[in-house]
Amino acid sequence: MTELPARRLLLVHAHPDDESINNGVTMARYAAEGAHVTLVTCTLGERGEVIPPELAHLSGAALGGHRRGELTAAMRALGVDDFRLLGGPGRFADSGMTGLPDNDDPGCLWQADVDRAAELLVEVIREVRPQVLVTYDPDGGYGHPDHIQAHRIAMRAAELAAEAGCPIAKVYWNRVPRTVAEGAFARLDEELPGLPFEKAAGVEDVPGVVDDERITTEIRGEGTAYATAKTAAMSAHVTQITVAGPHFVLSNELAQPVFTTEYYELVRGERAGDSDGGARESDLFAGIETEETP
Ligand SMILES: [Zn+2]
């Protein structure tokens, strides 16, 4: 096995684009710092809605293939070389939005056996031996079946990997503190008349919003090259995201702020620093003794 860097971060996501929206700053920072960053995306998002009219003809496998190209461009922007599709490209189909007949497609991620899908992720964990895993909360951030299933697969894989002698020291869920989301949308509402978007989304449209006290960790990116890289990575997902300045829209055309600080809740492992819950961690690897892999 080739020698891996001392610090190794694994992120598990449902569709191409989720990684850039949730973790673009984090991925860019750790890649730039020489950590090994591995992204596992569970589906190609081939049931996503397409924004640009000139690409509206793309659907199904053609859209999946196109989004694979977008993901490649996004990873180039973030400086991440190791990105994979769970079980290989096309192994699990996008399940579509909650309640649609797509959810019943036997090949979709929602219908996948969690243990068997988790075994595929355990293979990656055994190869890369990450100390840190990042994924969604049990609701998948906002209830999309593929996000819920990605959460289940990631958490189950962490358990199975630990049983197989390959424990992951820290597991985090993607979060946004409620006051940060509220503040950002209040500013956005004021700025909306000057923006190229007609309507704004609301706090309830942001995945993973929780009360501030649950936030354990923040990765700050304001004014850094990491924030620029995040915006570039989001922009690479042309079919899914339109970025304008510090704002973006998804296919619902509702403006949202780009968060250049990314927030996390530690759910497994030891929180570094203040044990009374005072200061937030500023490093996902804080408190982890890293050594070179044999
Ligand atoms: Zn998604």
What is the fold's blueprint, element by element?
Elements (H helix, E strand, L loop, with lengths): L7 E6 L4 H15 L3 E6 L18 H19 L3 E4 L28 H15 L3 E4 L9 H19 L6 E8 H14 L7 E2 L8 E2 L6 E3 L5 H12 L5 E3 L2 E3 L4 E4 L4 E7 L26
Parallel strand pairs: 1-2, 1-4, 2-3, 4-5, 5-7, 6-11
Antiparallel strand pairs: 5-12, 8-12, 9-10, 10-11
The chain binds zinc ion.
The site of zinc ion has 5 residues, from loops.
Keywords for this entry:
6 helices; alpha/beta; 294 residues; single chain; globular; four-stranded mixed sheet; LmbE-like_dom_sf; 12 strands; 1D-myo-inositol 2-acetamido-2-deoxy-alpha-D-glucopyranoside deacetylase; binds zinc ion; GlcNAc_PI_deacetylase-related
Alpha-carbon Rg, integer = 18 Å
Q: What is the end-to-end distance?
A: 9 Å
* Mean pLDDT across every amino acid position: 95
Major sheet characteristics: 8 strands, mixed
Q: Quickly count the helices.
A: 6
Number of strands: 12
How much helicity do the residues have?
25-40%
Order of helices and strands: EHEHEHEHEHEEEHEEEE
Low-confidence stretches: none
- Molecular shape: globular
Percentage of residues in strands: 15-25%
Which ligands occur here? zinc ion
Estimated structural class:
alpha/beta
